[in-house]
């Protein structure tokens, strides 16, 4: 009788846990987040004010800016607000110069979904298709969607594989070691990061010569990126 009661209580507990998880039924919300962000960044000009408002609403890392005064999280680092805005403007200019067009996004079945100290966590492998310099490319990465259990709102953190451990632990202090995240992958540059060839294509679009000094700078940046990839277990 005791074993039957324990089994019953376990079944009820697991059922309640499953009901608390909303990831599976929230893909329309996830798509809406991307739609909102793309509506700002895809125009001929980037509205930094509107983009900032949307990122404050959707970007998971923005919840931790109180620990990093005057900084915003970007591509694996905390940087000043001015540097962050400069990155956005440069990225937008490159997008225009390279004739980059957004073709679509595919949110695949989640690889992990659980409740944690930060809320409901849902890891969704994501595939974005783009037209870049008239070539179709695909970028793949893991999105970590996080639902606040108090206000039932979702935010997103895009994992790219070069995050510092201290930052990731700050964002996700109880992230299970059993969940294996994937680094960002691009069919344009399978080894991750901008290759020298890709950099040359971008500069060519702006009629700028890629000098030996610039090439060395790119090599150094690539070396640092690879070191950070290896620190996260990527070869």
- The chain-level structural class is alpha+beta
How many β strands by DSSP? 8
* Mean pLDDT rating: 86
**Percentage beta strand:** 15-25%
What number of structural domains do the residues give?
1
Q: Which residues form runs of ≥5 with pLDDT under 50?
A: 1-18
Distance linking N and C termini: 54 Å
Main β-sheet description = 6 strands, antiparallel
Shape field: globular
Helix fraction bin: 40-55%
Number of helices: 7
- What is Rg? 20 Å
Q: Output the helix-strand order.
A: HHHEEHEEEEEHEHH
Give me the secondary-structure topology.
Elements: H1 2-20, H2 27-41, H3 48-58, E1 71-74, E2 77-80, H4 81-97, E3 101-107, E4 112-116, E5 119-132, E6 135-147, E7 154-159, H5 165-171, E8 185-186, H6 196-205, H7 212-231
Antiparallel strand pairs: 1-2, 3-5, 4-5, 5-6, 6-7, 6-8
Helix pairs in contact: 2-3
Describe what this molecule looks like in 3D:
α2 (27-41) runs antiparallel to α3. The chain has one domain. The protein is globular, with a radius of gyration of 20 Å. β6 and β7 form a beta hairpin. It has helices spanning 2-20, 27-41, 48-58, 81-97, 165-171, 196-205, 212-231, and strands spanning 71-74, 77-80, 101-107, 112-116, 119-132, 135-147, 154-159, 185-186. It is an alpha+beta fold and 235 residues long. This is YARHG domain-containing protein. Residues 1-18 form the signal peptide.
